[in-house]
């Protein structure tokens, strides 16, 4: 319903901000990373949002990037994980650490988040380990994914080949992210992209 809000940042306090857009002040609960990267008060800001509606409450949650919002939406599909819990997880840990823990089935990172025990961490990993594609969460010009991208040499080599075949770097990166798996070689990535483009 509300994909993002672009307006003037009027207030920020702990985990809440107010963004004025069209004469309306939207109160948004944001992640720590979103809060840390906000501009100064009275400057323009763009926040990716999720509107949570319940019988007795409407809450607006905010994220600094589509990737952060995407991970939040994955987390709230897990039984027993609500919006506040999911935003708490994203605020407690780097996105790369959360994704790494899910992929490697390591409960320790998520279990250490406030309000999350080992059983909930195990459930998150069980329900998301086959749904998470690491390269869907790469943020341009950000080193969040360094630990996870042990395979980035293969991606880099594949991008060299794909760009030499006429694709722009942006298109090549996007297509590679859509089809590749964590342990693919450069040749496998190129083959998957070319196959996908041929369909």
Summarize it.
The protein has 199 residues and is an alpha+beta fold.
Structure, described:
By secondary structure, the protein is an alpha+beta fold. The protein contains nine helices and five strands, in the order βββαββαααααααα. It has a five-stranded mixed barrel. It starts with a strand and ends with a helix.
List the helices and strands and how they pair.
Elements: E1 4-13, E2 16-21, E3 24-30, H1 32-36, E4 44-54, E5 57-63, H2 66-75, H3 83-92, H4 95-103, H5 107-111, H6 118-128, H7 152-164, H8 169-179, H9 186-198
Parallel strand pairs: 3-5
Antiparallel strand pairs: 1-2, 1-4, 2-3, 4-5
Helix pairs in contact: 2-3, 7-8, 7-9, 8-9
Number of helices: 9
Strand fraction band? Answer: 15-25%
Distance between the termini: 32 Å
Q: How can the largest sheet be summarized?
A: 5 strands, mixed, barrel
**In which order are the strands of the major sheet placed?**
1-2-3-5-4
Report the C-alpha radius of gyration, rounded: 19 Å
What shape does the CA trace take? globular
Helix percentage range: 40-55%
Q: Kindly state the number of beta strands.
A: 5
Low-confidence stretches: none
Oligomer: single chain
Order of helices and strands: EEEHEEHHHHHHHH
Average pLDDT score: 86
> What is the SS-derived class?
alpha+beta
């Amino acid at each position: 319903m509300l994909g993002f809000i672009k307006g003037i940042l009027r207030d920020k306090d702990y985990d809440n901000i107010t963004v004025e857009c069209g004469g309306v002040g939207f109160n948004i609960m944001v992640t720590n990373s979103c809060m840390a990267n906000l501009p100064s008060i009275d400057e323009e800001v763009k926040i990716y949002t999720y509107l949570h509606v319940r019988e007795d409450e409407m809450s607006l949650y905010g994220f600094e990037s589509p990737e952060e919002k995407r991970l939040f939406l994955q987390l709230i599909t897990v039984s027993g994980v609500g919006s506040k819990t999911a935003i708490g997880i994203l605020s407690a840990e780097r996105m790369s650490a959360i994704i790494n823990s899910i992929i490697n089935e390591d409960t320790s990172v998520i279990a250490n988040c406030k309000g999350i025990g080992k059983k909930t961490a195990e459930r998150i990993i069980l329900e998301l380990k086959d749904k998470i594609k690491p390269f869907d969460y790469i943020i341009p010009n950000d080193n969040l994914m360094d630990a996870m991208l042990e395979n980035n040499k293969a991606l880099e080599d594949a991008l060299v080949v794909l760009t030499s075949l006429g694709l722009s770097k942006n298109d090549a990166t996007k297509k590679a992210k859509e089809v590749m798996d964590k342990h693919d070689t450069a040749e496998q990535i190129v083959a998957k992209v070319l196959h996908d483009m041929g369909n």
